[in-house]
Amino acid sequence: MRRLRDPPSLPRSPQPLHPTWAQSQLYDTAGAAVSGITVSNPGGDQSSLNAAQVPSNLVDGDYDTRWIDASMTSGSAVIELNLATPTQVAKYELYSGG
After folding, report:
1. Burial class (CB in 10 A: 0-12, 13-18, 19+), 68
2. pTM (predicted TM-score)
């Protein structure tokens, strides 16, 4: 009988992990995409990582842009999606920025 060795442990990243998110899309009860969305990241920090990866990238329709928040090292990050008009959201899609 052969004993399997434990797998080697993976090295820890010297950098903390930060959330990245590429796009979001909201849909109303009729299945139509909700437009006129603005985005904010209260308490967020984009400047220390990449000042171009701002919250508005989440609704710009471009899957090659990202949002990132350096404040995630505190344990949380907040994104607020603000609708131009009151709308009942029936479905949403979130696209990873990985």
Report:
1. buried
2. 0.72
